[in-house]
């Protein structure tokens, strides 16, 4: 499988779907969590929007406190499993919800957003802008190996601290590169993404697909920052 094929298979929907389980690593599914990042014009994340559905609680609910807690509490993350929309639809129907609403209708349940810091980017060099997708969660050796193989990450050369590997993709006339990096003293992961030339549709598309691939390996997107 080529890198481009792997990324294209990450999924085409705009919202992120998770199954909510009764306990960590437990088969019983009790509901759904649906999320979306709202991006500013420079593609930095401005807001995280989320809503949960649990029939036991009487329907849809939205909680900024819960969305934040998912990013900081490993026990909560262990109860969530990233899925595609088709699986979310089947689960929603099986749990008695009927037909899962269209994504535009689901957005109507986002009522308690998490504001994310935006502002002038920190200038680190004279090179192209860097967009950092920051993730909560952990990659064990097995997941890291699978992620590296799927994205065909090059072995690090040791010159850049924390970089696990680098992937590249040409989208139309744009060369996109991403470094998988360990950050936060080893407690978080990120993709540092650059696109040359800047502009066009390649960068937002790749950001979206990288998030999809990472979600499939147990990471939870926390924000997108624009660095320079």
Offer a few descriptive terms.
globular, single chain, alpha+beta, 228 residues, 6-stranded antiparallel β-sheet
Short description:
25% of the residues lie in helices and 35% in strands. It has helices spanning 3-8, 64-72, 74-77, 85-94, 103-106, 141-150, 202-215; strands at residues 16-21, 29-39, 45-54, 59-61, 80-83, 114-115, 130-136, 163-171, 174-183, 188-196, 220-227.
SSE diagram, text form:
Layout: H1 3-8, E1 16-21, E2 29-39, E3 45-54, E4 59-61, H2 64-72, H3 74-77, E5 80-83, H4 85-94, H5 103-106, E6 114-115, E7 130-136, H6 141-150, E8 163-171, E9 174-183, E10 188-196, H7 202-215, E11 220-227
Task: Describe the 3D structure.
The chain contains seven helices and eleven strands. It is α+β, with helices and mostly antiparallel strands and 228 residues long. Strands 1, 2, 3, 4, 5 and 6 form a six-stranded antiparallel beta sheet that branches. It has a five-stranded antiparallel beta sheet with strand order 8-9-10-7-11. β3 and β4 form a beta hairpin. About 4% of the residues have low confidence.
